């Protein structure tokens, strides 16, 4: 299981301690942080849709996406382009 956490800026990060605990206590859980509006030494500035490549999604069966409507729509479209079935994509849009 992999959790990808995208936020605009470092100040938007939350649940860091909880994710560290999950990662420390579960061998099959990992996570990565990304920011879309600032470059930091310990975070990667990157848009989530750029991460969605055939190589990065091939080992996963389900995809859960939540966030702003435009980002969710773009991710769903990209996953479908990569051959991911609609039944394997779960999403929630924040307004």
What can you see in these coordinates?
With 95 residues, the protein is an alpha/beta fold. Helices cover 33% and strands 25% of the residues. The strands form two sheets. A three-stranded parallel sheet has the order 1-2-3, with helices on one face. Strands 4-5 form a two-stranded parallel ribbon. Strand 4, helix 4 and strand 5 form a beta-alpha-beta unit. It is globular. The two termini are 27 Å apart. The model has no long low-confidence stretch (mean pLDDT 88).
Give the helix/strand class: alpha/beta
Give the total of beta strands. Answer: 5
The percentage helix is 25-40%
Strand arrangement in the largest pleated sheet: 1-2-3
- β-strand percent reads 25-35%
Mean pLDDT: 88
Count helical runs.
4
**What is the ordering of alpha helices and beta strands?**
EHEEHHEHE
Sheet of most strands: 3 strands, parallel
Compute the CA-based radius of gyration: 14 Å
Q: How far apart are the first and last residues' alpha carbons, in Å?
A: 27 Å
| Oligomerization category of the chains in this entry | single chain
The low-pLDDT segments are none
Large-scale geometry:
globular
Descriptive tags:
globular, three-stranded parallel sheet, 95 residues, two-stranded parallel ribbon, alpha/beta
Summarize the structure.
This protein has 95 residues and is α/β, with parallel strands linked by helices.
């Amino acid at each position: 299981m992999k959790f990808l956490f995208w936020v605009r800026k470092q100040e938007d990060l939350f649940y860091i301690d909880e994710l560290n605990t999950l990662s420390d206590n579960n061998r099959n859980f990992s996570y990565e942080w990304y920011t879309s509006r600032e470059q930091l030494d310990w975070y990667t500035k990157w848009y989530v849709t750029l991460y969605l490549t055939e190589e990065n999604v091939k080992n996963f069966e389900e995809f859960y996406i939540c966030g702003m409507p435009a980002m969710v729509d773009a991710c769903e479209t990209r996953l479908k382009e990569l051959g991911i079935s609609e039944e394997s994509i779960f999403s929630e849009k924040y307004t």
